[in-house]
Structure formats: C-alpha cells, structure tokens
Specification:
Blueprint (H helix, E strand, L loop, with lengths): L10 E4 L4 H12 L4 E5 L9 E4 L5 H8 L4 E4 L11 H21 L4 E5 L12 E4 L13 H15 L7 E7 L1 E3 L7 H9 L5 E2 L8 E3 H13 L11 E4 L8 H11 L8 E2 L1 H14 L7 H8 L2 E3 L2 H7 L7 H14 L3
Parallel strand pairs: 1-2, 1-4, 2-3, 4-5, 5-7, 6-13, 7-11, 8-10, 9-12
Helix pairs in contact: 1-6, 2-3, 3-4, 8-9
Amino acid sequence: MSENEIDLGKCLVIGGAGMLGLEIVLQLHLKENFVRVLDLEPVSVNGVESIVGDIRNHEDVEKACEGIDTVFQTAATIWDPNTPKHMYDDVNVIGNRNVINACIKFNVSRLIYTSTLDVVVDGKKPIIYGDESLPYPAKMPKDHYSRTKIIAEKETIEVNGKNGLLTCSLRPVGMYGPRDKYHIANIIKIAQSKSNIKLGNGTACFSHVYSENAAYAHILAAKNLYPGSKVAGECYFIADHQPANNLFTFMEPYLEALNLPVPKKSIPYKLAYVLAIFAEIFAPKSNFNRFAVIQTCVDHTFVSDKAENDFGYTPIVSKEEAFERTVQWFKENPV
C-alpha cells in the first residue's frame, strides 16, 4: 500500500510549537490536511487551529483529541540540569498517559510518538550504527530524561491495537535545525563562554538528523500506519546524511559561519568523566556532567534502514541545504 492511499484525516500535533512539532505542522498544512496544535505556546500559522494547553492537564488533552484521527505526540521535557525531577515524570510519563487515554476515549486511529536515541543508551558501551535490535538498558538509567522516555515509549507501544488505536514510536537521533534550543544552541553557548574546550580526542562519532527530515519521517510513518501494516507497534531510529562524524567536526562549520571561535583545546575522555562527577556534586545545575561527556566522547551512531524498508523514509533535505537554513535561522535569532 502506498503512502498516498492513507488518509490521515484530522491531525493533532502535540508540542506543535517546538522544533520538530512545527515542522510537522507546516508539512501537514502544505498538503492541506486539517491541523490542530496543542502546546503551551500559540502557533500562528494561517489555517491551523491552535489550542494553548498543557499535556499534564487531561482536560486540555481531551479537548485537543476530540474529533481527531491522527495524533503526533512530540511534547516532552528535554534534559536540562535546571529542570526539577518531577517535571520529567509529570510531562513525559503522566502527560503521555493523558494522550494515550484521550486517544482511546475519542477513537483516534493513529498515535505517532516521538522518542529518542537515549532509550537504548546504557552510558557504558559505544553504539556504532545501531539499529532497532538494540535492547533497553538492563538497569533503568539514572538520568530522568532517558528513564521517563523509556517508560513512555513502552506504554505507547503496549497499547497498539487497543480499541482500534494503532501506535508506533520514532527515535530521532541528534536533531538540529531552526528553533533548536538544545543541540546547536548549547555548542554556541560554549563557544561564547570562557571555557570553549572540546571533550574527547575527536574520534567518537554521533548521528544527526535535520528537523525537516525527522518531521517527514513522522508523516510517512503515519501514512503507513494501518491495520496489518509493518509499522504498527514498532520503533524506528531516524537519521540522515551518513556517515556520521564527530560532534565538534559537525559543529565547526556552524561556529565559523556564525563568526564564533572554534575550540582548539581538548580534555581527554577519562579526565572529563572524572571532572564531570565532581561537577555534578559541586555544580549540579551545570551542563557539564557525565551524560554530556558520554554523549560527546563515546560513539553513538545509528541507521534508519528499518524506516526506509517499512515506510520508505529517506531524507528530503540535503546536508548542504540543512546547513544553510539552520545558519540563517541562528543569524536571525541569536542565542
């Protein structure tokens, strides 16, 4: 069955004001789908219905889900040392349960959940072009973002087929693009600081995906999510522009284009890891911690072969075009 044979009906994008969510909104709107958004911030796109509400409030979620056929659940509390622990559970777990319950209550046909590569990262072993055969960590991660995303992904997949609701989970890798508040933005902040230093020896690689490509993958997955399809009840990594390279190698052209200094000095992985332990004790709200060190100094690369095979995903925006669009946005919206 081709993607054109699947009618998504009325679509809801939860978290539609975010980097990924807004790209999904724009792509759906371009194809003349009915689009509704639920977010803490309003979305001003002509013809798109915007509901300002909170995923933690089941009444807000039910209001948004009523009359909807396809839900894209992109909302989450992203890792940040300044975020209280309870927020991860309140948003990523309880909030997602509100979405699942509302979808079942209002007979929504499809729920596409946005997960993360972090659900399979154990913080010890490198992952080199990993695929969906990778298991969840044997022990639940200590960092609250990964822990709560694992719980939410499992619960979303477990309800596949319940009361006619079909679900799947997409795991974008290191996502970047316009409105990026966490990935490129953090590197820019480091470059602007006095401690502009690389972590590791520059050999570890990290996979990335441009936000428009990730959004396209979500819509493709939805169009292929029907009774008896390969997509129902499955998880998918979403990456683009292989092979992957080192995080700082990836970031250097962005820093240069934004007239920011490229870090020249580096800290070895083992030393950085030890320093991060102390930083967590004496500066718990710092971005320098073991989670950041591991993500930078240990290989975390993934492939999207399963997504390509099951629903035809390939990037629609080239690496060069993604670079130009992202740089232009950061020039117009300085960090």
